[in-house]
Structure formats: structure tokens, C-alpha cells
Specification:
By secondary structure, the protein is an alpha/beta fold. Helix content is 31%, strand content 23%. The strands form two sheets. Strands 6-7-8-3-9-10-12-11 form an eight-stranded mixed beta sheet, with helices on both faces. A four-stranded antiparallel beta sheet has the order 2-1-4-5. A hairpin with a 2-residue loop joins strand 11 (328-331) and strand 12 (334-336). Helix 5 crosses helix 6, helix 5 packs parallel to helix 8 (179-191) and helix 6 (147-160) crosses helix 8 (179-191). The longest helix has 18 residues, at 209-226.
Length: 350
């Protein structure tokens, strides 16, 4: 076994810091746990999650529905509502723990420092108010400007996100815009107060393929132009390959793999990640039946012991049924929560 293959487990609080200069970390999530208190007891929708977002980078959070991606984002924004609650860990933005802030201080952070774009703009925009009024309101919440100045800024933001005839569009209602235009409005609103971090939660899910590409191209150009850091939540690995520098794979509320994007596609380390990549359609294999990951994501209320992927894993070993594995280093900036990359792994399976 090579030195690089002899992976070492890291304490969770240190995993995300392995190849990150602390001065570059804009957002630091350490050992985050978000629990929901039900009649059957507490369930952990996000469990012991640690990662960083660096200044100006695009980081993807991927996984199937129910993997904990959106709850992670809502936890960062402190928007988890009862019966949900952050029960452990830290979320630090520019060194400041957001959990220590009052609700008033947190409202200043939302929109001003960290902004979020949701997957369905029609549910985020108020149907009875004009677009201009809604963008201007977002500006006036964080900036001491007059209504006239806020409206002018709203027009500039619509122009920034490439909405044609932006000044006239200020007087349109949401239903008068296409889905792609509404998503552009949401991006304009999110960026109106110049945040340093944008969380984009499935920003293209409700759009057709052509519009999806336009929205992602827009985000890429804005990131470069504004020096924006983006945390992209998606299940689309094709988008990740085109847009992001690093990727985190989640399963049942846990990070199972973190890697530079190129490394993940060329050398996926976790069986779950390999299954996701094999499920991607390609022109070359258009006639063949797409492989699938066997089974279903287990309910968060009834997770298996040991590795949570073991009921679906093609490489399962006896050790996988016991204690849950730590995140093991498999390369520079690359780790996986899998015994295939630890001292207990079967050498023939490496």
C-alpha cells in the first residue's frame, strides 16, 4: 500500500482545515449539528458537519434529496425554525460565531454579508408587489437611502443580472416575468447590498435546460466580476463540473466526501460518490441503461448502525456495520468517510 493510500482519520473539527489557510476562510462550519425534536425523540438532519468556504471560490454541496444540504444552508443563515434547532458546533463568518449574535445582529448579516437564493422564485417573490418595490425594500433594509435612491439602485441591479429594459421591468409584477427572469430578480435582490457570500439553493431546479445554463453563466460572471464566494447547493453534478472548484458530497446529514472537483471526477473515493457519477447520462452511453444506486436513502429517524451507506454499498465490509468511520485523508484536499481508505480496509479493495 502506498504512503498516500495509508489514509489517516482526522478529528472532525480539523478535517475542513487540512488544506485551507485560515486567513482565506470566509465561512467556517465546525462540527455543526442541527436536530429536529419529534414525538419519537431528537433526529439529526445535519450531523457533525465541518467545511470552509474560501474568499471568492465556488463550493458545491451535493447529494440526493434528504441528504441535509438545505438544512445545512438554513443553519448557516440561522433560519431553522422549531421543532428544528442547532444543537452543536459553530458557524463562523470572518471569524465571528453567528450563534453568538442577537437576532437583530443576525438580520444585519443576512443580505448584507451573506445572501441566499432559493430554488423557486415564485414562492419567494410577493405576487402583489411590483418587482422594483421588492428589490428596493431589500436595499432599504440594509442601506440608509431614500426611496428614490433605492429604486435607482434596484434598476442598476436588474441591469447587472442582464434583465432587458430594466427600468421598465421595475414596474412589472412577478407573474409578468418568465421563470428565468424571476430567478434573475432573486439574484439581483440577493446581491443588492454587496454580500461577500451567496448561498444558492438549487437555483436552476424549476427552469428548463437552456435557462439553467444562462443562470449558471450569470452566476459565474458575477462571481468573477464581484469577487463573490458562492456555496452552491445542487444535485446536478454536471453543473458542479462546469462551475465549482471544490465539492462536498452529503448523505444522511453527513459529509461523506470532500474534494477538488477535478479530483472527484477522476478519482471518486466514496462508493456513494462513485454511484452518483455512474448515474450521470452521457452521449457515448445513450443506448445503454443508466446504472442506479440500489435501495433508498434511509429515513433520518431510522438510520443503520455503522456507516450509514452500508445497506446500499457494493463494497460493504464487516467493519462497516459497527462503528461509523471517520473522514479519512485520501489525497491533498481530498477526504472520504469510508473504511476503504483507512487502516481497517481490505487492501484488495483499495
Amino acid at each position: 500500500m502506498s504512503v498516500e493510500s495509508q489514509a489517516v482519520g482526522l478529528p472532525e473539527s480539523r478535517v475542513a482545515d487540512a488544506d485551507v489557510d485560515p486567513s482565506e476562510a470566509l465561512l467556517e462550519v465546525k462540527n455543526l449539528r442541527t436536530s429536529f425534536f419529534t414525538a419519537d425523540g431528537a433526529v439529526h438532519a445535519v450531523d457533525n458537519v465541518s467545511f470552509n468556504v474560501r474568499k471568492g471560490e465556488a463550493l458545491a454541496l451535493v447529494g440526493e434529496s434528504g441528504s441535509g444540504k438545505t438544512v445545512t444552508a438554513m443553519s448557516i443563515m440561522r433560519l431553522v425554525v422549531p421543532p428544528g434547532k442547532i444543537t452543536a458546533g459553530q458557524v463562523r463568518f470572518k471569524g465571528r460565531n453567528l450563534a453568538d449574535l442577537s437576532e437583530r445582529e443576525m438580520r444585519h448579516v443576512r443580505g448584507n454579508d451573506i445572501a441566499m437564493v432559493f430554488q423557486e422564485p415564485m414562492t419567494s417573490l410577493n405576487p402583489v408587489f411590483k418587482i422594483g418595490a421588492q428589490v428596493a425594500e431589500a436595499i432599504r433594509i440594509h442601506r440608509r437611502v431614500s426611496k428614490k435612491e433605492a429604486r435607482q439602485r434596484a434598476g442598476e441591479m436588474l441591469e447587472l443580472v442582464a434583465i432587458p429594459d430594466p427600468i421598465r421591468r421595475l414596474d412589472d409584477y412577478p407573474h409578468q416575468l418568465s421563470g428565468g427572469m424571476r430567478q434573475r430578480v432573486m439574484i439581483a435582490m440577493a446581491l443588492s447590498c454587496e454580500p461577500e457570500l451567496l448561498i444558492a439553493d438549487e437555483p436552476t431546479t424549476a427552469l428548463d435546460v437552456t435557462i439553467q445554463a444562462q443562470i449558471m453563466e450569470l452566476l459565474a460572471s458575477l462571481q468573477k466580476r464581484l469577487g463573490l464566494a458562492i456555496l452552491l447547493i445542487t444535485h446536478d453534478l454536471g453543473v458542479v463540473a462546469e462551475f465549482c472548484e471544490r465539492v462536498i458530497v452529503m448523505y444522511t446529514g453527513r459529509i461523506v466526501e470532500e474534494s477538488p472537483v477535478r479530483e472527484l471526477f477522476s478519482n471518486p473515493a466514496h462508493p456513494y460518490t462513485r454511484g452518483l457519477l455512474k448515474s450521470l447520462p452521457s452521449v457515448a452511453g445513450a443506448e445503454a441503461r443508466l446504472p442506479t444506486i440500489q435501495g433508498m436513502v434511509p429515513p433520518i429517524t431510522n438510520l443503520p448502525p455503522g456507516c450509514k451507506f452500508n445497506p446500499r454499498c457494493p463494497d460493504v465490509m464487516p467493519i462497516c456495520l459497527g462503528k461509523e468511520p471517520a473522514r479519512m485523508i485520501v489525497g491533498r484536499g481530498h477526504d472520504a468517510r469510508c473504511y476503504l481508505h483507512g487502516d481497517e480496509a481490505d487492501p484488495e479493495r483499495l
